[in-house]
Predict the structure.
Amino acid sequence: MAANTQQYRGTDFQRYTMRVAIYVALIVMTLIFLTPVYLVVVTSLKDPASINLQNTWNLPETIYWQSYVEVVEEFGPRIFNSVALVVNATIISSILGSLNGYVFSKWRIPGEKILFPLMLFGMFIPYQAILIPLFEFMRDINLYGGIPGLIVIHTVYGLPITTLIFRNFYVDIPDEMLEAAAIDGADFFRLYTHVVFPLSIPGFVVVIIWQFTQIWNEFLFAVTMTTNEAQPITVGLAQLAGGEAVRWNLPMAGALVAALPPLLVYLILGRYFIRGLLAGSIKG
Amino acid sequence: MNSSKDRMIAFLMVLPSLIVIAIFVYYFIGRAVQTSTTDWGENPARPALQEDVIKDYVGLANYDTLMSEMIQSNFRVSLVNTFFLTVFFVAGCIVVGLFLAILLDQNVAGEGFFRTVFLFPMSLSFVVTGTIWRWMLQPNGGINVLPTYIGLPRIEFSWINSSEVWWQFSWTDVPQYLTTAGIAILAFIAVRYALRQNWRSASFMGAAAVIILLIFMAGLWDYIWRPLEFPDVEPTIAPKGFNAALLGIIIAAVWQMSGYTMAMFIAGIRGIPEELREAARVDGCSEFGVYRHIILPQLNPIVLSAMIILGHISLKIFDLVFAMSGPDNSRTVVPGILVYTKGFRQNSFASASAIAIIMLFLVAIIIVPYLWTQLRDDS
């Protein structure tokens, strides 16, 4: 973009004011976007006795860590539930998505022009539309209410997006590579394990990050498909913050604890997160 | 690679996924449609969760009830809410996202930092966002007291529990509005095609506009828009209009999702060859003109994609409303919330299913053509 030094017409003064305006706008937007973060951190560190609506924005006079201890106690098993759910559902749906993507991008299967869009439609439907039959079905097969049932649900409804991301990823692997290996006698599985899979690591990173954040953050299945002991963390947070007489230090600390895992993933692996995000609009 | 044995294996490998999708998506949708035509959970004499509960077929009665009877007036409010929520949420995300994308396109120092800041809310749960913004928008605290720090009067507005209803209209008039809007949009598109001498598309759009007019005149709307049970009481019990309490939810949703549109726009802008901009500058375009004439027209397809993706998110919205104003707030009620309260609290499975099917229908209207065109361009 070396040409861009030439891009601003007009005098030096106009150019200078334009640059200043751009940075002022960026800084104002940054402050707006980060204001909620400031308020969450400040509120979560205040002694509940000193929180009132008038001094909302003040810094805490003394740092009060107790809210975090209380929140972790309150969440308790729910943190473990979320971890068990996320780890299992993410791994299973990623592996299945990788296999599906491999088949849909490199093999011809009967009716794929119809089957693939039918599968993709599954990621756009409002899950409310299948919620009641899902509830009946899970009850019938004795998987309603627990974490194993939730793992099954998230694996199944994760298949469209994981398949899509892997398919778009594998389309870029040249067919010649697979044909060369096939001439050497590689069959379906050997082509996958020796050619496709070794090239899949970035694809897996994108899919795993995507599934991890989606499932961790999910609320509809979490609140309708679990009984008390099996609730994930988002349900815990909703309970912490619900009701009228809320001590706001707790929900704020809770929000921060619930947000931390996906937030860390985003900050460390943001580039891959954005790729997953943009995959949701179909084209790779 | 072409051995029929391997092709068979390939098919067998995706078969389990196809089968579970067939069950969990299509069979369940079918069952939901079926449930919506029964009285399961609507008859107090038969507890819904009893073994072998009798479910009688009632046809479209549940849909009729939703569209007309007083007891379901909150469903009609939820449809109106979804409309306003969608319009303002989508418009807000596109305007803010485009603004941020253009700012970041100016070769700024620290671009990576700014991008990270504008996108981070995307990684949060809607429940987290809702919890945080509920505190931000407390009527007597939060951003309402912020002006007092610089000596200004505080803001007096109840962002999430206002009971004001702006721009009120009558539910009975909605088919009229929808017909007028549909014809106006189609006529506008037809004129644009005509100006570009694309007569085929122009007459197609014109014909579609005429068909909508005919549908309206033939009274086909009356099959969907049933006469209200108590047309006189409806406006006082469940006024239709823009519920001011939605403003807080819209603000929180735009805060969370505008980074997403920004990312889409940045990807789009990066795809425009630098030579194109350079050529425009050589032709004497100002920097503003480059955006007006070169970049924005190229972003049109992205604006459309963003409208569809964000629009369908807004039609499905549940968790943000749940966390911000609770599932029982009659002012901010949306269809997604009603499926939860009716289905999982009151066990009114049939009417909850009918609402869910209406949601699915609305989402399908925008998603099916989108999927179709996307995948057609793909191959």
User: Anything to note?
Assistant: Residues 1-8 of chain A have pLDDT under 50 and may be disordered. The first helix of chain A runs from residue 12 to 44. The two ends of chain A are 25 Å apart (CA to CA). Chain A has two domains: 2-67, 68-279.
